[in-house]
Amino acid sequence: MSEGPERKVGIIACSGEELAEGTVSRLAALRVLDSLRPHDTVTLCLPLFLAGGPDDRTFALHHPTITVDGCDLRCAAHATEMYSNKPVHSLVVSELVAEQGLRKPGGRRQLNEAGRQAVESTAERLAALVDAVISKETHVSDTARVTGTSERRERGEGSCSCGGKCAV
Amino acid sequence: MSKDKGRVVVVPCSGIGKPSGSVSREAAYELCESLRPQKTQLVALSKLVLGDAATRETVARTPCVAIDGCQQMCASKMVKKSGGTVIHAVAVLDAFRRHRELKAEGIAELNDAGRKLARVMAEELVETVDALGSSGVDKGATYV
What interface predicted TM-score (ipTM) does this complex get? Predict the structure, then answer.
């Protein structure tokens, strides 16, 4: 069996500077990117969908994406879908905190203990979702993968902003 | 009347890929939380990317300071795309060129040099914020 192209999951955080939950989203994304799943994940700064170029806007065509939002405005999820492609999963920190019965995070500049706990919980959930996406991806047949790649080439999407060797 | 009337909007880069993004964010927090909390309002860049109506209105009616982390200049570009006016834009790289001894490292947690660079940038921006306050500069519209 031929080896399929390397696939990575794109993590896009809202990074919302106004709320502690935005800080949680940013630090949780970094934890997954740097420590928990460094070989399976890449990221793109959210504003690049509008402030960057075509490569940035096609990011989610090349990577299955998971968005992490701080609040129910869901800026990252909505913007990713509007300007690139629909995320395969969408996490909202405030919802996760409520679901797990955690205390509300505080300290947007320097997280308090509740905020740090929220980072850990969010990062763990993110890593589990990355695993699920990767696992699902490996079950895609080589034929289907190659077909998808050809279709993208025909649409002229030849590069990706992540800087990696994307299946394009 | 809104409590935000007359405040200067501060929009930092929201980058998570480089230390300079963290410096821009830290500079914005230093300015808005420590140095001039009564005169400034921090606005998250992600809301401008989404096109949130209330945030666009705020930006369109209020003088804005953009703090950019890299040459992509997302903060400045997004303020302009949102109908706002950047009355002062600063870039972390430019600040570093003026203060070569302050090399920022770390993203999740900035090193001391990075925090000092952010502090220097925030202190430089105080002059802009204070000047706006004393001159009563506005854009011919009611502040929100």
Answer: 0.87
